[in-house]
Amino acid sequence: MLKVLIPFALAKNVYDIDLEFYKELKIDTIICDLDNTLEAFYTLHPSERAYELIKKLNQIGIRVIIISNNKRKRVEPYCKDLNCDFMYSTRKPLIYKGKKFIKKFDINPEKTLYIGDQLFTDIVFANRLRIRSVLCDNLVERDQFFTKFNKFFDKFFRKKMKKKKLVPTWEELLHGINEQN
Ligand SMILES: [Mg+2]
After folding, report:
1. Ligand 1: centre distance to CA 10 (Å)
2. Which of 12, 57, 111, 137 could be bridged to 16 by S-S, CB 3.0 to 4.6 A?
């Protein structure tokens, strides 16, 4: 399988990941996709669990920056409600804007984790920027129309990846780290 499609870890969703995982990896920044990773695309305002998650992460010294291919009118109000920095119309998997993003927010790729739900946009984007990534299952089944084409290939490669056990889950990685200590 193409290396650029391989994430660092797998997760059920962003809410399922134990904070210990980030602590063990010494993460100080999480770059998170918005639609279908943090929230369903039709949910316009942050849910209670999104507020809770951001609060908990901030409390342990991790900042969260939201990055989306969606338009300003969707991304800005949501992120302002959450009090998170953000970038809209990013055009993932292209990294032209991503490189600017890294400079603007002074991101250290070694201490950063990218979390997203799509192989061909999120994971390719993170890999090209040399940032470790976590691929989540879709938060909701329904998705925007324009992602349907991508989703077909995404499903195919995701299945293959899981069947061949090419990528560990965050739980497996965390246990591995703890066993070493
Ligand atoms: Mg998404």
Report:
1. 15
2. 12
CA 138 to centroid of ligand 1, rounded, Å:
8
Interval 147-161: pLDDT, tens: 667 778 888 999 999
Ligand 1 midpoint to CA 37 (Å): 5
Report the DSSP pairing between strands 63-67 and 9-11: unpaired
Token readout for 142 is: 């329904």
pLDDT one-digit tens code per residue, 42-59: 899 999 999 999 999 999
Residue 35: the pLDDT is 94
178 or 117, higher pLDDT: 117
Contact 52, 38 (CB under 8 A): no
Structural domains in the chain plus CATH codes: 3-180 (3.40.50.1000)
Distance CA(114)–CA(125), nearest Å, equals 9
